[in-house]
Amino acid sequence: MRPRMYWRYATRSLGRGGQHTLFAIFCVAVGVMVIVALQLVGLMVNAALTGNIRALNGGDLAVHSETGISEGQLAYFAQLQSEGIISAYSPAIIDEATTPSGGSLQRVSFWAVDPATFPLAGPMPVIAPSGGETATLLQAHGSAVATDTLMERLHLHIGATLPLTISSGRAGKVTITGEIATSGVISDRADLLMSRQTYASFVNLTGSPAGYGWVFVNVPGHSDTAAARVAAQVHQQFPDLDTTTVSQAQQQVQSEIDGIRTFLRIIGLLALLIGGVGIINTMQVLLRRRLLEIAMLKTQGYRQRHLLLMFGIEALLLGMIGGIVGALLGIGLSFLVQALVERAFYLTIPTIIDPLTVASGVAIGVVTTLIFGLLPIVRTSAVRPLAVLREMGAEGARASRMATVGLLLLLSVLFFLLALGILGNLMVALAVVVGAGLALGLLTAFFSLVAGIISHWPVPSLHRSASLLALVPFLLIGLLLLRLSAGFGALLLALVAVALLVAFLPRAARAETQLALRNIGRARVRSATTLVALFVGVFAIGLGLVLGQNLKDFLASRNAAVNQDNAYILANSQDAPLVAAQLVRLPSVSNEQVSLAAPARLIAIDGQHTPTTSGPSETANLTGINGFDLATGSLPPATLVRGTQDAHAGRLLKASDAGTLNAVFPLSESDAPYKLKLGDDVVVGSLDGKTAQSLHVVGFYTGLGTFAGLSAILADRGVAATLSNGHPYTIFAVRLPLATQSQELRTIMQAVPGVITLGDAATLNDINTILNNIVAVIEAVASLAMFAGLVLIANTVALALLERRRELGILKAIGHTSRGILGMVLAEQGVLAMIGAYSALLVVSVAAAVLTQMTFHSTVGSSGSVPITLALAAATAALCMLVAGSVAWRATRIRPIEVLRYE
Amino acid sequence: MQRDQQTSTAEALSAIDVGKSLLLGREQVEILKDVRLRVHHGEFVAIVGPSGSGKSTLLGIIAGLDTPTSGQVFIDGIDVTRMREAQLAGVRNQKIGMVFQAFNLIPTLTAQENVEAPLAIGRHPGDATSQARAMLTLVGLAHRFKNRPNQLSGGEQQRVAIARALVTRPAIVIMDEPTGNLDRANSENVLQMIHDVQRETGTTFIIATHDAAVAEAAHRTIRLLDGTVAV
User: Cα–Cα distance between A591 and A93 in angstroms, integer?
Assistant: First the structure.
């Protein structure tokens, strides 16, 4: 009989709970949804990156060089193959290009491979045409296969032609013959594959050799031991090459994935914590409404353990329903996060719905509800039955402070155990729980103090000058802040203005405002909890937005400050006059600087032949000369640095260096193998070997690189002219507005088809897209925190109004209207929202400024974005008041007689 | 404090020199002072007195909801004065039935289920459902088993509350202003029903009331004035 009675009571009470039951279910569901979604995404990422490690590695061994693997070095692998030490090898040229798309230039990373040997570790997953293979698709001259990510980004189709302007000084077109999945060895590395023949057929203005970035190697038997032996041999032969075996790749990837999955689980756990606080809040409301009936049960002999069981069943049901709802929503959310991650990091990750993860999500929902429901259940079931006789209501459930502290400690321990179960790591779980607990505790204590101060603040009144004078300090602070941080200053002044307006309101409205402020201090812990919830929500959203904005601002400012030029046009000696004529026609060109360039080779240093890594080859000791018209004051815009072999920095070129053989070298040439230092005399020769020049090292530089990976020697233009045998190519460095840059560069390319153009707009577009996607992922998760905070507010308002029913009845009995009382509630929540949002945005601004300073050594964005500050603060206040108003609407329409009949 | 060592087995209730004082602010207020009270089995006793006389406090003490500052209380021969809450809960379940002015029914349970509620705990032989139905029939609500409180009139709700109080066959039924929320007609009906039940079951009724009709209907009236029993 008892189980039936308990079941009936629990299920019907939940039904009677109405919107509060729904709130409680939502609180459980939010936490479960986030944790299930992020766990599923973690599994998806894990599968994508570890599903086939050998395919990801490109073979049994992957050899990589940032500075390029030469043909001579490739010959070594051919030798290993002929000796049977390796069974196959496949080199890949890596390069970058820009291509016009949708009115702007887009960045494209690509590899040029040997279709006969690439890939070594299983076929590439070809999406279209069905049944296609890369070997066949890359056979035709000028063909290329694009990843699904690139196809979507550039709106490509099979058969589309893609013009490429390549950063190594090449240009050409490819036709898309196939679509492949962004997975395996090209994940996060290349958007496009073409054959080496196609690459070699491109126009090459600089004469720079092909830069092999990778060599993939298979060993007989695919044994990891054999691969490790080969790796050791390669290292010994070429110390500057990096090697990765399959097992090393596995460890690296697994370590990264474990880190990612732990991070995702921590976010899920924090979402559970937020949901849990909501559960405490909502169950308080649910149970407080039943205090008299609980007391009545006690008069019939029910003891606390009976009640704990009854409410435990109720919590269990809530947890199960919330867990199921949350798990289902989590599956849906995982698809959204999956899409965002794919777009943000250019990955293809498989869709996974793991039944065990989903089921454990439901279980987590139940456990979380039981843990967080414990506090309100124990406190409410401690109601004294005497409360029935005296109709004491909430006063009858006054639990002792010791009991409350004990319950909080128990809750912390149980939550720690839950965290341990989810994270699987004792120290991380301890750090998360203790860290979150400390942070929440400190915030609650701080906001409790703030609530106390607010509750005693005088309401501005025209009849009390002291109340108006109390606003003066805020006015002054606002004016000061306006100069330091426009957003915060403007917001504070707006709040002072609102406060001043209150002074002009009718007396009843001012009285209601005073009540609103007093109410904030009445239940200080509850007000503090609301403030903490708002703070966390606004902080999470604000940090994502402000950091993202700061990063964009930093990149744009750096682009403006460091690169006075943001576009380059490369033309041979015949096309150079045509380009000059085109530039004259463009109205928005500024900062034009013309220099000459010629490829060269380093022959000797201080009379000694330069060290080479292999025998004669087209890439041995290759460099370039960038010659400036120093006589006219056209100096190279480089940044002087100290060479690694020198104790002090040298100097940059001056006008007085015109006609001399003084030169400034790239910083990399002060490293091995050349180890150049100030004062060295370096002999450079033309590529055809017919001409040579001796240059004197006066300094080293960074920050000037016309083409990625080809940092040239800076000298007088005469040097470039000599080494190019009178036919140097010309570099036009200009500044074009970012908005029109792509269009103007295309105009030049159409007018002078033989030129190569490069602009920063494509790179910035790419970075901005990535940043936007990352911020979108962060905001999606952060908005859940905000949503949970709003639920907390709804419950707090409901609980407060429930407890103050009689007080509201009295207010109405003496003449206050429903509208006035609703206004009081809105004022209370509006004040709380403003305090929570303002303090959160202040901390966001400081945190973002510190992070930006630490990472980029820049103060860009530290002044506080005005639009973000005002918009977030206003949106927070509006949302809070909307939520509070919708909950309070009915409660404020109470009829005095209903609550006052016992008076 | 000297305890009265006599057992009171012939009495349903015996209160000996019961006192209750409370600290209100900085002042010690004596709400009850040396209250002596004896109620025999089967008696119908009315406790009357003006507001503030200590009726509710006395009711709370004799119902085992509150502990006196001094004195002893015996319910059906059991000294409940210094019992722990767990023991008191058992006494309330087995020996005491309570009815309140505000009915205090559980809104999510039907009339039958409300009456069954006390039988779900403690030792109560027999089938709870048939006992609940029998009690509801006794109070004239045989046609209301499946109705919830919001489907019942005030008088009907109070009858359900009385049936709930009686279902455990307690030694005493304590009522606090049972007709306080009822109109005259319903009050008379409830009063008549109390009489009928009292006659049929021989249950002891102790009723605190302002209602003169209830006081008149009682076998005996005890007047409480300023915390003491008026002579």
Answer: 34
**Residue among B59, B66, B85, B121 with most chain A CBs within 10 A, to mutate:** B121
Q: How many CB atoms lie within 10 A of CB A236?
A: 8
pLDDT at B227: 83
* HSE value, Cβ hemisphere, 13 Å, CA-based, for A374: 19
CB contact under 8 A, A2 and B120: yes
Which one, of A241, A199, A226, A302, lies nearest residue A65 by Cα? A241
Task: Provide the CB-side half-sphere exposure for B83 (13 A, CA).
Answer: 22
Give contacts of B107 with chain A, Cβ < 8 Å. 16, 293
A35-49, A224-238, A733-747, B16-30, range with greatest mean pLDDT: A224-238
Is residue A139 within 8 A of residue A125, CB to CB? The reply is: no
- Give dist(CA A735, CA A758) in Å, integer: 11
| A85-134 per-position pLDDT tens digit | 999 999 999 988 888 777 667 889 999 999 999 999 888 889 989 888 88
- Residue A860: the pLDDT is 54
Chains A, B: CB pairs < 8 Å: 83
From the candidates A1, A13, A21, A299, which should be mutated to test the interface with B, based on the most B CB atoms within 10 A?
A299
Burial B35-61 (b: 16+ CB within 10 A, else e): bebbbeeebbbbbbbeeebbbbbbbbb
Q: Which H or E element spans position A722?
A: helix A717-723
Cα separation values, A825 from A289, A803, A821, Å:
20, 14, 6
3-state secondary structure of A47: helix
Distance separating alpha carbons of residues A675 and A693, to the nearest angstrom? 19
Tokens, residue A81:
């193959």
CB A801 within 8 A of CB A822: no
What's chain A's average pLDDT? Answer: 83
- Residue B177 near chain A (CB below 8 Å): no
Residue B93: which of A1, A292, A301 has the nearest Cβ? A301
Say whether residue B134 is in contact with chain A using an 8 A CB cutoff: no
Q: Three-state DSSP class for A300?
A: coil
Helix A19-50, helix A2-17: angle, nearest 10 = 90
Its ipTM equals 0.85
Q: Per DSSP, what are the bridge partners of residue A600?
A: A623, A686
- How is residue A388 written in tokens? 């029935």
pTM of the model: 0.72
Yes or no, beta carbons of B104 and A292 under 8 Å apart: yes
- For a pLDDT cut of 70, what percent of chain A falls above it? 90
Contact A295, A391 (CB under 8 A): no
Beta strands (DSSP E) in A447-589 are: 567-571
Distance CA(B171)–CA(B132), nearest Å, equals: 18
